[in-house]
Amino acid sequence: MVQIALFLGCLIPNRYPGIEMATKLCLSKLGIDVTDLRGASCCPAPGVFRSFDSPTWLTVAGRNLALGEEMQRDLLTICNGCFGSLADANRTLKEREDLRKKTNVHLQMINHQFKGTIDVRHIAEFLYSDIGPKTIKESIEKTLALKVAVHYGCHLIKPSMERGLGSFERPHFFDEIVEATGAKSIEYPDKMECCGAGGGMRSGFKERSLAMAEHKLSKIKEAGVDCIVNACPFCHMQMDHGQQEIEKTFGKAYNIPVLHYSQLLGLALGFTPEKLGIHLNAIKNQEFEEKLASSIEV
Amino acid sequence: MNKNNVQEQLKEVGIDILKCMQCGMCSGSCPSGRHTSLNVRRLIRHACKNPDVLRKKELWMCTTCYNCQERCPRNINIVDAILKIRTIAAHEGMILAEHRHVIKLLIEYGHAVPIDEMSMNKREQLGLERLPETVHKYPEALEEIKTLLKSCNLDKILDHDS
Q1: How far apart are alpha carbons A153 and A235 in whole angstroms?
Q2: What are B109-139's pLDDT values in tens digits?
């Protein structure tokens, strides 16, 4: 049985707990032994903390990584920010002895040590590589008759040299696990474009950050889909809660439902939208809810 | 302000922005630049010669999407350069009030986005515990974060006048 430690981060447990629930339900149903990384903190958020002070970023990330090492489990992230931050910190601390030593001086104060014995994974690439679209397809109980706009988000695939997940211009692995649920991934212009939330933009320049999201939403709307599927709660918040902010700021209403991949997979594995926290999203779309209720059973 | 120029400090961490040929691939690839005054090509040119790049608000308009870095024909790690320039700026007290707030949240709660009452209710509604298995639930774990942040002197960044 695959064993993994779930790294929750901030936004999922503290703003979108439906994604936490959906992830736990899906992984258990797929026969994965998943347990929370107890006592974890912020990853810490790469756009801001890595900007401010790299040693602090490495040290706090180093503690989260050390917790996983102590459990002898790889860390599974469900957020692109956590993935980018922890994977980059893990690689840096493994490769750079000088930085590892400096970080461990801090960690020794709290009786932890970074050794470099585990890997950091992201749920999208983990499900694609270790479980595979074929197994997912065989595991589903409901074929989802949905047209989906897949949003990868930036830090899942870039910097591509470090991530090693293939083309950053036209990747396909995420689309494949989406389509394993029966849903159809619809192509749309600027599919690989940023949602506008990262790097401290959403907190620092809210209105411009929303303008970026609005551009993306307009392309998705034109493509004609039932929902957006992402793999990151920051993109999720920007595109879900962001739609309400966009309506207030620019007077444009999109009303496009937004799901994290765990929630889409959860639907296909037979869980109800309520169980997966889909009704707790900011966007309520009755047409979509009716469609979910009538999705074809296998 | 550190009189040493920014370009030299970047060189020390292995980023040579003088390799830039000003082709504009970066600004052409920049999703933020379509909606903001950020022009990455100009920002890099500025950083090559002028330390007042530290004061540019555009420095903070990068979402770190990495398009520019991926596509740069001169293989300049542009996002890494921007992050490094931000670090120099932050250590000289040039940091947005909103970002100062995020630092305070991490220092106090161990989360950049701490839990609130509404989200605790949502958790309960889903059948999850009100507090997640993070530093929120374990005070001794939060103490560890506070010890680390103190040891790293993160609060020093907040000492500067805004």
Answers
A1: 7
A2: 999 999 999 999 999 999 999 999 999 999 9
Closest CA to A181 of A54, A89, A99, A267: A267
Count the alpha carbons within 13 Å of A285 in the hemisphere toward its beta carbon.
21
Question: For the structural domain made of A133-293, what CATH number should be given?
Answer: 3.40.50.11810
B126:A21 CB<8 A: yes
Please tell me the predicted confidence (pLDDT) of residue A298: 47
The residue among A131, A54, A47, A40 whose CA lies nearest residue A89 is A54
What's the CATH number of domain A3-122, 1.20.1050.140, 1.10.238.10, 1.10.10.10, 1.10.490.10?
1.20.1050.140
The CATH number of B6-91 is 1.10.1060.10
**Rounded Cα gap, residues A13 and A192, in angstroms:** 26
Partnered with residue A5 across adjacent β-strands are A35, A75
Residue range A105-138, pLDDT digits in tens? 999 999 999 999 999 999 999 999 999 999 999 9
Cα nearest neighbour of B77 on chain A: A159
Selected residues 128-167 of chain A with any CB under 8 Å from a CB in chain B: 154-155, 158-160
Query: Taking the alpha carbons of A52, A58, A63, A69 in that order, is the dihedral positive or negative?
Result: positive
Q: Is the pTM of this model over 0.90?
A: yes
8 Å CB contact of A277 and B133: no
Given an 8 Å threshold on Cβ–Cβ distance, is B149 in contact with A56?
yes
Mutate to test the interface with B, among A21, A53, A111 (most CBs of B within 10 A): A53
Q: Where are the domains of chain A?
A: 3-122, 133-293
